[in-house]
Predict the structure.
Amino acid sequence: MPRLATQIEAILYLKGKPLSIAEIAEFARCDKDATEDALLELMADYAHRDSALEVVETPAGYSLQLRSSFHDLMQDLVPSELGVGALRTLAAIALKKTIAQTDLIELRGSGAYQHIQELIALGFVNRRRQTDGRSYWLQVTDKFHQHFELEQLLPPLEKQSQS
């Protein structure tokens, strides 16, 4: 069995999103204290090696991510070729968290059909058929949150109450 820090590295890589210490401990099948110690060990390992990756603590938990010094390379290799219209459509989906495709078309116009196809192809949006079979539910994916480095989107009223 690999050491706990290595297991945690694999967990963070495979999940591809920030995880709390409790979540990591559950996946690693160990207690929170051992998880914290192994996370510190893993973070120190990454801090001392010449690596494109790093383990960071975010408000949503711990994450394995590309170092910021490599963001230009990422933009060159994985360009986000979204036009303004597609970005606005994506923003509308993200702000609503889950929206019916018919409601989105009413909000954004018929050009949103093409935007939706593009966003699905890029992996930023998931689409699933509604139970009545008449339309689809749309929502953003984990890839959206990772690509745009967003933990979560809160409605304006929730943001104000947190201040």
User: Anything to note?
Assistant: The longest helix spans residues 32-48. The two ends are 45 Å apart (CA to CA). The mean pLDDT is 84. The longest strand covers residues 53-58.
